[in-house]
């Protein structure tokens, strides 16, 4: 079975990009220690600094599902604090 890749776009409210960067960085450091995590890289958009991109690779879909159980509540807390306006998540498989 091939690994699972995830591309996630996280959107801070306008003007809150720098405030969101700290919690996302801390989260990335934690997630990299999770079972099955091969890659969990945080990027900030050069043109729109309130957009962040997570580029992930997981050993199995099951490991990704466990990761979602852990990060779901943390993401909800960021929304409650007004630091996260939205997110889009795309799952993919590597082709070439």
What is this structure, in a nutshell?
This protein has 2 helices and 4 strands, in the order E-H-E-E-H-E.
Q: Using only CA atoms, what is the Rg?
A: 13 Å
Would you identify the regions where 5 or more consecutive residues have pLDDT less than 50? none
Largest β sheet strand count, sense and barrel closure = 4 strands, antiparallel
Oligomer: single chain
* Beta fraction: 25-35%
Gap from first CA to last CA: 15 Å
- CATH second-level architecture: 2-Layer Sandwich
Count of domain modules: 1
**Mass-distribution shape:** globular
Number of helices: 2
Strand order within the widest sheet?
A: 2-3-1-4
Number of E-state strands = 4
Query: Average pLDDT value?
Result: 95
How would you characterize this protein structure?
The chain contains 2 helices and 4 strands. The protein is α+β, with helices and mostly antiparallel strands and 96 residues long. The protein has a single domain, classed as Alpha-Beta Plaits (2-Layer Sandwich). The chain has a 4-stranded antiparallel sheet, covered by helices on one side. The radius of gyration is 13 Å and the shape is globular. The two termini are 15 Å apart. The mean pLDDT is 95.
């Amino acid at each position: 079975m091939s690994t699972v890749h995830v591309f996630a776009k996280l959107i801070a409210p306008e003007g809150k990009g720098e405030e969101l960067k700290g919690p996302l960085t801390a989260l990335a450091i934690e997630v990299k220690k999770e079972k099955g995590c091969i890659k969990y890289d945080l990027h900030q958009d050069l043109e729109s600094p309130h957009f962040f991109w997570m580029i992930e690779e997981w050993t199995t879909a099951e490991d990704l599902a466990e990761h979602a159980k852990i990060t779901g509540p943390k993401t909800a807390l960021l929304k409650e604090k007004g630091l996260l306006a939205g997110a889009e998540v795309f799952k993919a498989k590597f082709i070439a």
